[in-house]
Amino acid sequence: MSNDKRPNDFSERLRRIEELNKQPRTTIPSEVRKDLTYDNSGAPDDNRLRNAIIWAVICTGMGTGGYFALQAVPPEMSASLAGISAVFSSGSAGQSTDTSGAFASDSLPSPGTRGANLQSPAIASTLPEPLALADLVTDASLPGDTTEIGRIIPFDRNDQCNLRRPGDGEQIVNVRMENGALPVPVRAFSDAAMIDQLARNIAGVTQEGRPYDWGAQVRGEMTGVDVFLTDTSAPIYLVLQNLGKGVVWNVQTAPGVTLAHVAIVSSGSSGLVRPPEAVTFEALLVSDFVPEHAFGADDTLRACMIRPWRDPQPDWVAVQQADGNASYSNQLQSITTGYAAYNAWYTGTLGVDAGTNLVAAETAAHVHVGPMPAAPFTYRGISGQDVYLMRTDHMITGDPVTLQATIDALHGALLNEAIGGDVTLLDPAPVARVTP
Asked: How far is CA 127 from the centre of its chain?
């Protein structure tokens, strides 16, 4: 996601994308509302001028952007959405604990490259005994693709690489993972991400001679995670960290728990289901301060190393199979040095080690921190709840049909701005030159 608080140099971004597309890629398996208050023959490229014009038009057309905070597509947009969407429809098929801690016996975690993958009703917990959702809460109503939330409320993420220092008596609690495991009816993405994808799509046609890839869209998918807090011994300063897509965190407290502050460090545009009114929160987006991941580039000590790496653990498949496996071995070396760099920033910023009161997993639907409550408390679902999201250009909610129609419309409008809506203009048929 782009940093929406600063101007974006789209021409420089597109130049960088073009350079990256020429290089082999390495794949690894796997804000701040402080007051509460994102020809293959090798012949010379004869399309460079045309591509430059297309990209210039894209940059001009997307130079300014707003954001969508939609509960449904308004009636006045229906006709235009249907018209633009039809273009796409015609061409598409449509103390420190890492790992899970404990899990329900009827929902065993599957091993992951970087820890357990816990689907509901399993719970990643600091407790040693297995936990299921019913052990902590009653009347659980989990979110789904058709859940209707309240408003999407944007908030500005930090433009400084810092977080509020914990106050006297506040206890740091850490949650760290790759992605959540609950579906949420929310999408969030930036104009810059759309331009990146469109540039790749256009390059596929003009540089590689492939049909236009209608399915290659930025959709801004997000996942959800429930965080259950049951520790009543001190006010909690909660740090929520993830390395994957954006996460909608639903923080729920047992009776007697005091939640003082929430800090988010995320690789994707993330947010919170509305917390209690007295709770302040803030957020850092990794890409605002750290470049796109590359081995040996973002795992070194620096002033603002905020990619929330996790310290490798014995249950990771990557750890167990690293001996003799160069891919896993290289990953672990990068992750280990990356975690040390992240921990240095974290410790300097918050005054405690990043492993303090930590619960972590590769993927989880529910996370629990604290002792077993005296009795289960009532689950708070996201239905009808407002969701605070890091501000970005496009933030949408709705049922799957509404979401896809809106995403199609946004991509269609951008494509239309660039090439007039007719993909054949990207690669016109040769014109015979007649010599008089």
From this structure: 28
Q: List 368's β-bridge partners, or say none.
A: 125, 228
Backbone angles phi, psi at 211, to 5 degrees: -60, 155
Q: Which residue has the higher pLDDT, 328 or 141?
A: 141
For residues 142 and 120, the answer to whether their CB atoms sit within 8 Å is yes
The one-character DSSP state at 122 is: B
Helix (H) or strand (E) holding 412: helix 400-419
Contact (CB, 8 A) for 256 and 231: no
φ, ψ dihedrals at 349, nearest 5°? -85, -45
To the question of pTM greater than 0.85 for the whole model, the response is no
> What does the block give as tokens for 305?
């190393």
Beta strands in 164-305 (DSSP E): 171-180, 182-189, 221-229, 236-242, 246-253, 259-266, 271-273, 280-285
CB 261 within 8 A of CB 281: yes
* Residue 429 pLDDT level (bands cut at 50, 70, 90): low
Task: Please tell me the number of Cα atoms within 13 Å of 362 on its side-chain side.
Answer: 19
* Per-residue pLDDT tens digits for 105-145: 333 445 567 778 899 999 999 898 889 999 999 999 999 99
Pairing type for strands 366-369 and 259-266 reads: unpaired
Burial class (CB in 10 A: 0-12, 13-18, 19+), 205: buried
Task: List for the chain the helix, strand, coil content (%; round to 5).
Answer: 25, 25, 50
Structure tokens at 249: 């965190």
Query: What is the spatial distance between Cα 1 and Cα 6, in angstroms, rounded to a whole number?
Result: 12
The pLDDT tens digits of the residues spanning 265-298 come to: 999 999 999 998 889 999 999 999 988 766 656 6
What does the pLDDT read at residue 147? 97
DSSP H/E element including 47: none
CA pair distance 224, 180, nearest whole angstrom: 5
Specify the 3-state DSSP secondary structure of 225. strand
Quickly list H helices, 137-236: 191-206
**Mean pLDDT, range 25-39, rounded to an integer:** 30
What are the sequence ranges of the domains in the chain?
31-38+65-72+95-188+216-407
Rounded distance between C-alpha atoms, residue 305 and residue 307, angstroms: 6
